[in-house]
User: What shape does this take?
Amino acid sequence: MNQLDEAFILLKEKIIDLELALSQSQQEIQLLKQAHQKEVADRKYVESELRTSQHMLQLVMDTLPEAIFWKDRNSVYLGCNRNFAEDAGVFSPQNIVGKTDYDLAWKKEEARFFQECDRRVILSNRPEVGIVEPQLQADGKQAWLETNKVPLHDLHGNVIGILGTYQDITERKQAEIALHELNQKLELQTLELTSALHQLQQSQLQLIQREKMSALGNLVAGVAHEINNPVGFLAGNLLPAQEYIRDLWELIDLYQVTFPSPGREIEEKSETIDLEYIREDLPNLLSSMEKGVERIRSISTSLRTFSRGDTESKVPFKIHEGLDSTLLILKHRLKANEHRPAIQVITEYDESLCINCFPGQLNQVFMNLLANAIDALEESSQGKSFQEIQCHPNCIKVLTELSSCQKFGVIRIQDNGVGMTQATQHKVFERLFTTKEVGKGTGLGLAIARQIIIEKHNGIIEINSALGEGSEFTIKIPLKTVY
Assistant: This one.
């Protein structure tokens, strides 16, 4: 065998090897084709399943009543449901991809607010829920939303974006706004009604005060007027009576000189009537009658002082005169009775103290305070014997003075009666409040007194009391009229 044959045999073997290799390659290619076809089929199936799953997910999200969206770390939208797409004006969820809040229907300040909120959630890696925020939607509706935003994480726990949902709470917000406005209106109406009620109560107090003072003033003025008539008659006849008596004495003296022996019958009569005693005592009797008339005149003057009507403006008034006239009217209650000795009254007046005021109204204040002081003393006397009270006499002290700053006239009315608790002191000036039994107190006296002092005279009325130690009312009235 020559070299050519050997080469031919070697070539044939190579060809056989190549054919074998080619056959194997064809088999492998066929397997690869089959694998590729299977992979393509599997991928198509997966893609079909994925599209079905995505469609189902989108269908679920579109069915939910909430609006749903998600963004990347730069607040660029990656997806949303149909509710959000309609609100944003992109009409289809696919159209939201790649947009930011500035590309949508909201106002610029709303878009800025949304992205600031996104930024907080991403940086803090913590959700924010229940965010109430406004939103101008694509249809022009200004809505109110309650939004929840949570961070989205990758497999390694890194924040890659946010997921957000919101509900339209416009109706609820509008209801809250309407309720707030209604509450404001109700509060305003309540204030107006309260003010009207207060004015009505003040008017009622003023009416009661005027009627009470009018009735008392008319009564006192009538009594004073009725006293004046007989007093005037007595005062007018005292001087002529003294002159007539003097003339009669002169006539008797003349008879005694002319007829030194008038006879036994006249002498006996003279001795019986004690003519010399009558001559000596009759001037004293007339003088006593004159003093009595002057006292009645003083009482009448005090009654007129108490019952004087107020003018439209304040007038100068000596406070002690009003206090004396009030004490005179209450004198019958100060006298001793079968249950207790007389109530002592101690007065310390600055008689130069003169205040511009409404005298009739101040007299009513004095009447209420002094009457209450007498009530307190009578209450403290209950259960005590006459002798016990004598050892510790019931006493009312009335003082007037000029304040240390010389801007106020000060009146103090103090008693050593039952006193008051702190709780009672806080309520004592309230309308209709009374500690007396039913039928014995109206609860208006001190409320009227407070109104007169504070509202009519721009003054101050205070109480200082301790249970079992008595009470002291202090009144301060500006010396100068304040308008």
